[in-house]
Specification:
This protein is an all-alpha fold. The chain is 74% helix and 0% strand. The chain has one domain.
Amino acid sequence: MKGIDDRRGLPRPNPWHFVALLGGNFALALGPWFVRMADSGPVSAGFWRLFLPLPVLAILAVRQRGPVRAVAPLSAWLLIAIAGVAFALDLASWHIGIAYTRLGNASLFGNSGSLILMVWGLIAARRLPRPIELAAIVAAISGAAILLGRSLEIDHVTLIGDLFCILAGVFYFFYIMLLQGARDRFESWELLFTSTLASAPVMLAIALWLGEPVWPHVWWPLVALAFCSQVVGQGLIVFALRHFSALIIGVVLLTQPAVSILIGWLVFGETMGPLDAIGMALIAAALLLGRLGETKSR
């Protein structure tokens, strides 16, 4: 398996790849709003997010296939299946955690995979971070901490939910790492369809095991969740994966708190104070620094 920072022989990224990475993360940040509005159980909502777009993903995968290529070995398909299971466990853990902790805690701990990706990227590269990379990491973490700090509360009541959300971040790290390892063998829609096909049964089994209501009465939140999160969000991220290091992917994933607060301000009339603006500015600076660092490393 290729290392996640090994990009030899891969096409150089252009600004559209970075826009795709940002756009995918923006679409993913919309997901919790649709989960809130769904009248199925939270894990069941995750199942429908995975199951509903499968026909669309299958069509896109078939249309994207280029010239006939060598058949990928069984180990490569197994890698995608394991990634799909990791993603299902990520979604299930995070959705369970939301029910037992505050939303600020869930947003912060659910994005713990971003920090793991940053550290892993440096370990895989076997070097210390360059000054510009270190500045990007500090700015991203500081911005996320400011945005979520006001709602973050740690106590024994929320501990179980916090742990589930941290576990979700760990599973998401493995999902991204495994998909990036397989990205050079498969087209992006083929990769997403196969991993989603492996994820859906796991999500359904967990929902049934928890005794959640699976069949909804109102479908539009689940259809919106499936389209925004799985087709647009994961589709754009999987497309961009092969072009960026773990560091830049981790920095971009930390934009989700900023997007959530911005949506709350624009759509739901929630107050956005000066500290929120500072936090968003720090994350914007982190994206710029990370992108500059990525360019200089090539």
